[in-house]
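Project standup — Tuesday

K.O.: blocked on the structure for the chain from last sprint. Re-posting the sequence here as requested.
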Amino acid sequence: MNKIYLENGMDAVQATYHESPLEEYNSNPFIQALPPLVTKQGIIDSLAMPISFDESERDYDSAFRLHMVQRLYKLFQPLPRHLDVWNTTFSLLYQGYISRNPFDKDYIRQRNQMGKEIINKSFDINNQTTFRTTASCATLIGYSGMGKTSSVQRVLNNIPQVIVHNEYKGQQFNQLQLTHLILQTPHSSSLKALTLQFFMKVDEILGTSNYKRNVSKNTSVDAMLPQMGQVANNIGLGLLVIDEIQHLQNRAIKQMMNYFVTLMNSFGVPILFIGTPAAYSIFQQEFRIARRVSGNGEISWNNMENGKEFRFFLESLWRYQWTQVFTPLTDEMVVTFYEHTQGVSDLIVKLFANVQVMAISMGKEEFTASMVRKVAKEQFKLMQPMIDAIKSKNPYKMHQYEDLRKIELEQKAQPVKQTAVSPVKIVKQPIAIKNQQPIKVTQEYIYKEDDIRFNYQKAVDANNMYDALVKQGYIEDMKYWIGGVGDVK
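H.V.: unblocked you, prediction finished:
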């Protein structure tokens, strides 16, 4: 694509149109100007971001090598979950444009009619039945520090944000296309703040004056929403990304969700929600909302298990060592890194970088598992309670930190064997049977030790339910009341 500059100095590209094997993606300039769909290997190649490194750099003075270690924070190693993010993002973008073909007569007629209603202030968002949108939405929910936002941004970096159209198949077509826009959910859950953020960001990117034209001191949200939708159509907005969706407060959830559903239904704008597990309950408020956000998939992004994915991620980091002595990746190192990061990618990178900084600063020029443990103890003090909560796999402890709640259900325990325990008495027996023996039937379930039902059974056997639950961390110890009054007797 040919790079050009807008009047405000922002980057843009000149539209180049591609034919797709999929018929529904042709005859639409908004879709054909997007990067062509690529194979799995093409996605990996597009996402990967290696960093500058040469083994000879290990001979540099420590003052330089301490700065080289900081390159680790720019490394991007594609994992299977990143392929899901890529495919979901492109699906939302491509599909959302299908019903918004600027050369489709029905769509042009609908846009013109909507524009007249907005000007005449007769637009009713609850009475827009003629437009059949192909827009959908999806959710990306997972632990803090797993790189959700940076992964989406990495995918979007492969899509030009602004595309300039001049001519399409011999017809004049002067159009700016804004393929994607990222908004941050206001901490106040204010719809007006979100709408103002939309107008300001669009103006910043395209050099337009939508904020000045559509916003005044007394303009209500109900008046601004149609304007926002009209602007989205005028600039060919392909995808709206709403980050930190967990900032929604209970009082604003329904109102905000209705707002987003209106953007999809009335104006055909696809939406990708990003948030921590604290946001998961937001989408379960109403069936219609849950149905819409599941339209293009849910990506659950928990911490990595101590398995192949975690080891692969460590191996991708391990070659980037600026200590003069190379430290091999041993099984002990793998166990130690997992113990102190619990598979949270941000913590893995930070621990790997900080242990190198310590080794170089102290002049040891190599690091050991014990040094890794020391760095984790010193550098992760604030995060230690959260790491311990993840490590415990205890739902009670994890729910104390909303960002850590796992959102997939564990597999239920299955009956694994049958043993004879208690007789079943037959009350009525119309036919006498000689030498009848009592029938003994039971099902014994075997649970994992981190399952509360395992501890419940132990407590029942020991006739001490309270102490067993306190010991396992499922409830607080209430033997002493910390409130300045005294001991609870």
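K.O.: great, moving the ticket to review. The two ends are 76 Å apart (CA to CA). The first helix runs from residue 29 to 32.
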